[in-house]
Amino acid sequence: xxxxxxxxxxxxxxxxxxxxxxxxxxxxxxxxxxxxxxxxxxxxxxxxxxxxxxxxxxxxxxxxxxxxxxxxxxxxxxxxxxxxxxxxxxxxxxxxxxxxxxxxxxxxxxxxxxxxxxxxxxxxxxxxxxxxxxxxxxxxxxxxxxxxxxxxxxxxxxxxxxxxxxxxxxxxxxxxxxxxxxxxxxxxxxxxxxxxxxxxxxxxxxxxxxxxxxxxxxxxxxxxxxxxxxxxxxxxxxxxxxxxxxxxxxxxxxxxxxxxxxxxxxxxxxxxxxxxxxxxxxxxxxxxxxxxxxxxxxxxxxxxxxxxxxxxxxxxxxxxxxxxxxxxxxxxxxxxxxxxxxxxxxxxxxxxxxxxxxxxxxxxxxxxxxxxxxxxxxxxxxxxxxxxxxxxxxxxxxxxxxxxxxxxxxxxxxxxxxxxxxxxxxxxxxxxxxxxxxxxxxxxxxxxxxxxxxxxxxxxxxxxxxxxxxxxxxxxxxxxxxxxxxxxxxxxxxxxxxxxxx
Amino acid sequence: xxxxxxxxxxxxxxxxxxxxxxxxxxxxxxxxxxxxxxxxxxxxxxxxxxxxxxxxxxxxxxxxxxxxxxxxxxxxxxxxxxxxxxxxxxxxxxxxxxxxxxxxxxxxxxxxxxxxxxxxxxxxxxxxxxxxxxxxxxxxxxxxxxxxxxxxxxxxxxxxxxxxxxxxxxxxxxxxxxxxxxxxxxxxxxxxxxxxxxxxxxxxxxxxxxxxxxxxxxxxxxxxxxxxxxxxxxxxxxxxxxxxxxxxxxxxxx
Lengths: 502, 254
Known about the structure:
The complex is a heterodimer.
Chain A: E1 5-11, E2 15-21, E3 27-34, E4 46-47, H1 49-67, E5 74-81, E6 87-90, E7 100-101, H2 109-113, H3 119-126, H4 135-145, H5 149-154, E8 158-161, H6 163-171, E9 181-183, H7 184-187, H8 202-207, E10 217-219, E11 222-227, E12 236-242, H9 243-250, E13 259-263, E14 267-274, E15 285-290, E16 298-305, H10 309-318, H11 327-332, E17 342-344, E18 362-364, H12 372-398, E19 404-408, H13 415-425, E20 428-432, H14 437-449, H15 456-460, E21 465-469, H16 475-490
Parallel strand pairs in A: 1-5, 5-12, 9-10, 13-19, 19-20
Antiparallel strand pairs in A: 1-2, 2-3, 4-7, 6-8, 11-12, 13-14, 14-16, 15-16, 17-18, 20-21
Helix pairs in contact in A: 9-14, 10-12, 12-13
Chain B: H1 6-20, H2 27-34, H3 38-50, E1 54-56, E2 63-65, H4 67-72, H5 79-97, E3 100-107, E4 110-117, H6 139-147, H7 170-183, E5 186-189, E6 196-204, E7 210-219, H8 220-223, H9 232-252
Antiparallel strand pairs in B: 1-2, 3-4, 3-7, 5-6, 6-7
Helix pairs in contact in B: 2-3, 5-9, 6-7
């Protein structure tokens, strides 16, 4: 029997999903399980990597069952995963030695401040700003706080990985010969990899005091990592990408100048910059977009926005102004504009393009005229303005002018927001028919390696426009309101005047 | 304007009384509080229990507010909530049928398109979100008219003629709506735009109430067979999708 499907695993921050795609890149079956979020202290966020692995072992047979197919119908499996989250486990027992420390965790802020004088050299090598968001400082924290961890890491008994590494190791046999590899896009987010050589960097390993023996082998995103055992017995494991890079790939942004934004809890703009690393002087992160085995890597510039969808959730859960998130559009449509009000959601500092951890949120321009409709509009607009800032930075760094932004994610259901983004970017905003771009990107990666899809052009043919928003705003008003937004942003700076206690 | 209807007033008074009471009320409690005959009160209580607005405890025979009244306050579906729940299903319908998908509902009493997925052929198309739906000349409109709120199933007044196939006679339209309700879906064949046909089915929210309609639109020779009837596989794709959206809407509200 010929293999007719590709299985994609989307290991996200709140849930894990197992998704089956057919040759037309249509979703055939999907199963999803949430995992627990552990918050042991303010600012700490942890996952149980064993729980995530157990969930995946449940999801895969259920997905195959839903579609009524067996393992022999699978051409291959690809993984897209939450990035930067760190897992450390014992290669003999297969058990993590500590909870996985999640990308949102800020426990290492104070430590990173002590490295401030190394910020430029870190940026030169890894391309990343010194922020707790990336893996290195949290891996170091684990080695410093788990008894005997450093000793065992040095003698090669402990292994480190981001989520795809953990899942690949387990899927390919775990304690019985599991393959210890990481994909290059995930490795580029650890702050331990040299962005140009694509190798672990000795200076960074020394700076963060990480033993090389525990690190996985860095491999292309599309490569034959190994053959699965257990729940996927005999299926080739052939693709892995960090979730945002997977969305870029799923949106078929294969050419330099192609850009996408995924609107979720936070939002992530990625611009394909081709074979060149473009260093940003505007707070963006150069990162690996993807690498096909035997080919040169393709790079991207990334603008990460910490709070977008979660600001709408705050309006719902924190203020109780709406009962469901989509209702924000109804409330925001009850007024014609923001009434002069701006909400800057620097709940845990600001990401791109500012990278200011001491900033905290403000509502600016409040007058007695402002009502809850204006507030709802300002909340939606915050996502738009933050997108504009990141796109402006991208245009400045790349020397290109973005004409079309491909969008995906839950907030693309918000018509008012999508039109607003088109208006203030003065660019066309396009939503594809297949909105599950993260899992689709993982499927594409796996499908290319196994020949399930012949080439990039065949993937492009699967992409169809589901909706398009064209700009329609007075340029004078656009620039005046943008200036107001930027002024409101300056009001968030410097709120935290002393480092928060550890 | 006719005067107040006494039984409706009394039913409302009973609901207020039961809602304000800290404990369930018996027949005598209600009759005495409102100074009504027991027979009349019993009839009112039974009717209110039958429609689910009151609930009678099997052991004590006393009445409390029923689930129907609670559902009633959730019966309205926000149009943007509807779009959010329908988006993945609508994408999948467009992808499978190869045609454009639209969702319509009443927004401030006006039948309006609230979601639109382009026909997946990458030709230039314009988002029609916010446009008014002609109720008599489109499959979406007929589905809303057949089951939805306003003059329920009994179209009245003047209707625009868009093509030679547009039905503008209220009586003829009423007959069509009976068919629509019987078969569970609606269609229009060149009644709105020449050369275009559409198929739609109702989306149901809490307590089975129709809260919107979802449908496909495309060239008449693709949507309809040689006999001018919508193709069966497209009809079942539309009705399946409508059921999936309805299920999603209802389960999300539990």
